[in-house]
Prior knowledge:
The structure is a homodimer.
Chain A: E1 3-8, H1 14-27, H2 38-46, E2 53-60, E3 67-79, E4 83-93, H3 102-117, E5 121-127, H4 131-138, E6 144-146, E7 149-155
Parallel strand pairs in A: 4-5
Antiparallel strand pairs in A: 1-2, 2-3, 3-4
Amino acid sequence: xxxxxxxxxxxxxxxxxxxxxxxxxxxxxxxxxxxxxxxxxxxxxxxxxxxxxxxxxxxxxxxxxxxxxxxxxxxxxxxxxxxxxxxxxxxxxxxxxxxxxxxxxxxxxxxxxxxxxxxxxxxxxxxxxxxxxxxxxxxxxxxxxxxxxxxxxxxxxx
Amino acid sequence: xxxxxxxxxxxxxxxxxxxxxxxxxxxxxxxxxxxxxxxxxxxxxxxxxxxxxxxxxxxxxxxxxxxxxxxxxxxxxxxxxxxxxxxxxxxxxxxxxxxxxxxxxxxxxxxxxxxxxxxxxxxxxxxxxxxxxxxxxxxxxxxxxxxxxxxxxxxxxx
Lengths: 158, 158
């Protein structure tokens, strides 16, 4: 089997990560919603004031260069009910590499990171029709799903 | 009419802000969900690494000390689709002071803050049965509500 390495994302991973973001947006039926620029993406993670952190899953096969096949990207959210938590913005494994446990390797790494940082828990969202993702998350004991909240947004006019 | 001042929150506002958090949680039918400590709340906003910022609405009436009757608390979220955005965690006006335009004063301040910080927009959540809040937000042109996302959470075991 190929050798899978879970490691912290570096600035040079950003172009490939953004490719994976586009792949997931297509699956989530919203490809035109991805409007972020390459520069803003990289600068937000690796500039003077980082606002996101990530782990990537990298495959190492004999005779080929290392290749990123998935990632988990998060930031610190602040809940006035629960305090500081990890907010998992994206957990992505490219289609050809699903079903091999790589998503769980990334998710387990997030759990250790929460512990190391002293965060009391994680939050994220999942689309209600995304059964494979819901099944994936249900494997984690104590995982809770709650309905009834609408997402609201307001874009600033330039 | 009383004199209402919208200003940046200070550390000394934290105990009163937390009272208002409890008031809102009761309205949202989840009073026991508020488990944050006074210390963690204040330290997260005013410690070495602040992760939240807020504006408070303060009433100044003749012969009485200034009193905080509402606030808007936010943090920076990072969307892999949209980039850095303001995430409005809580917008609260205490019950006796609703319907006087104070919520809009706070919300308008958030919009200016987004512009000043160069953020492309705001996001927040609203409960699907909270008609007064939904009506309030609908007054902002271009505000979008989206359904179909479930909130997921996992608490770390100590």
